[in-house]
Specification:
mainly alpha, extended, single chain
């Protein structure tokens, strides 16, 4: 049966020459998450694509409010970057949880 529309079609992705160590680690992570490797990899892809690119994230940071005079310390930068990235990553992961397992990732 053909898909009703182009949006309903599902594509295949084959990755050749995956190093054995990477494959073992990926399988172990999938098993630890009680997921198939397929679902685990789809979740990784979904999470990665939902995050901004480094360039767009830097553009947003650099166009935001100034640090306020003094140059920030390395710790202030790490805290600011880490808290924003972690919160966004958590949000994306939670959103991805409902999209994996049915064969379709939005």
């Amino acid at each position: 049966m053909l898909p009703a529309s182009k949006e309903d079609a599902i594509s295949n992705l084959h990755i050749k020459n995956v190093p054995d160590d990477l494959h073992r680690r990926l399988r172990a992570r999938a098993e630890a998450s009680q997921m198939t490797m397929r679902d685990y990899v789809l979740r990784l892809i979904h999470v990665d694509l939902a995050l901004p690119t480094l360039d767009s994230w830097l553009d947003a940071v650099l166009s935001g409010p100034a640090w306020g005079g003094d140059e920030p310390s390395g710790e202030e930068i790490r805290d600011t970057v880490g808290s924003g990235w972690d919160a966004q990553t958590d949000e994306v992961v939670l959103a991805a949880d409902g999209d994996v397992g049915d064969g379709y990732v939005a």
